[in-house]
Amino acid sequence: MKFSTLSILSLVYATTVLATPSFPSFPQRATCSNGRTASSATCCVWYNVLDDLQANVFDHRCEEDAHDALRLSFHDAISYSPNLQRQGKFGGNGADGSVIKFFDIEMQDPANEGLETIVTAEKELADKYGVSYGDIIQFAGAVSVRNCLFGPRIAFMAGRPAATQAAPPGLIPAPFDNVTTMLARVGDAGLTPEELIDLLASHSVASQKIIDETIPHTPFDLTPEIFDNNFYREVLLTGLFTPGSTLHTGEVKSPFPNEFRLQSDFALARDVRTKSHWVSLSLNQLLMQSRFATAMAKMALIGQNSGILHDCSEVIP
Ligand code: HEM
Ligand SMILES: *[C@@H]1O[C@H](CO)[C@@H](O)[C@H](O)[C@H]1NC(C)=O
């Protein structure tokens, strides 16, 4: 008898606790395709974009299309200049997808050479699924990193409105810019010198095809499919080799015959303003990964009103 009284009591207790309105209820999750769920139904579409992007653009790999998608996420976002706005000119809206919407204008900027294929592929996906160009660029950038071994997860916010105007030319840093120019440019867009160094972890999964067109796919480090800190270490080594037949504008000698070194990376690794942070990332891969993820999430919101966006980070693999 004692036992059953206890049972009834605990049953009553459990029922009361579970029914108490102040007890936090389990949030209702939306059901998406293939049995997946999301905190909000508005995020479901991104699972479908993810499947298509991975199968038909990236081939689930950390190779050229993934690298281009990552590079594109920078070029779209960095095209934002409060300095120009203060001069009464249009300064761009940052990560707004203007490079897709105003393809004919922005793809004439030499800085965007080589990105035609990925821009076209992302435009098709965005149109097919009815998502914005600004969103697809930052989404594809975040997904691309997950295809690389050790690539960290980057937060993804959805809901960027359509671009209204082409971004002004000249806002994307060039490999022949000096450090003062590069820091001023990214500072104008809201990034600190340390954040620029953090973002350059992207060059650990990067290669060139435009600066020296005779040697496409020459990587910036020896392991361009792995998101590791070899890149930061290798840029610190003495330059000895020219991978092509001559050095080109924006190129300096690299430590290995089959490696390409950008003058910008070389200069940032040695400038008094950025050297210590560069060295600290070269020594600490976990720091490099976490700082990259944080800086990327910030970059993805440049020029955007985060208050109107919603968090769909759970869709990033
Ligand atoms: C000072 C800033 C930067 C400069 C001057 C710079 C310059 C360059 C140049 C010249 C290339 C080679 C393009 C080619 O010849 O195909 C390149 C490739 C690349 N960049 Fe940057 N970059 C900078 C920052 C960034 C940032 C912040 C990101 C991403 C967050 C990024 C991602 C990439 C990627 C992934 C590639 C490889 C593309 C491929 O392999 O096809 N870069 N960058
Ligand atoms: C950096 O480049 C800018 C633009 O070309 C130039 O005006 C400036 O003098 C250069 N600064 C240094 C320190 O070389």
Write the layout of secondary structure elements.
Elements: H1 2-19, E1 30-31, E2 37-38, H2 44-58, H3 64-78, H4 82-86, H5 98-101, H6 103-106, H7 116-129, H8 133-146, E3 157-158, H9 179-188, H10 193-199, E4 207-208, E5 218-219, H11 230-236, E6 251-252, E7 261-262, H12 263-270, H13 275-283, H14 285-299, E8 310-311
Antiparallel strand pairs: 1-2, 3-8, 4-5, 6-7
Helix pairs in contact: 2-7, 3-8, 7-8, 10-14, 11-13
Give keywords:
single chain, 317 residues, mainly alpha, Peroxidase, domain 1, two-stranded antiparallel ribbon, 8 strands, globular, binds protoporphyrin IX containing FE
What does this structure look like?
The strands form 4 sheets. This protein has a two-stranded antiparallel ribbon. The protein has a two-stranded antiparallel sheet with strand order 3-8. It has a two-stranded antiparallel sheet with strand order 4-5. β1 (30-31) and β2 form a beta hairpin. Residues 11-20 have low confidence and may be disordered. The protein has one domain: Peroxidase, domain 1 (Orthogonal Bundle), CATH 1.10.520. It has helices at residues 2-19, 44-58, 64-78, 82-86, 98-101, 103-106, 116-129, 133-146, 179-188, 193-199, 230-236, 263-270, 275-283, 285-299; strands at 30-31, 37-38, 157-158, 207-208, 218-219, 251-252, 261-262, 310-311. The chain is mostly helical and 317 residues long. α2 packs antiparallel against α7 (116-129), α10 packs across α14 (285-299) and α11 crosses α13. It has 14 helices and 8 strands. 46% of the residues lie in helices and 5% in strands. Protoporphyrin IX containing FE binds at residues 64, 67-68, 70-71, 74, 114, 173-175, 182, 199-200, 202-203, 206-211, 250, 262, 264. Protoporphyrin IX containing FE is lined by residues 64, 67-68, 70-71, 74, 114, 173-175, 182, 199-200, 202-203, 206-211, 250, 262, 264. Ca(2+) 2 binds at residues 204, 221, 223, 228. Keywords: Calcium, Disulfide bond, Glycoprotein, Heme, Hydrogen peroxide, Iron, Metal-binding, Oxidoreductase, Peroxidase, Secreted, Signal.
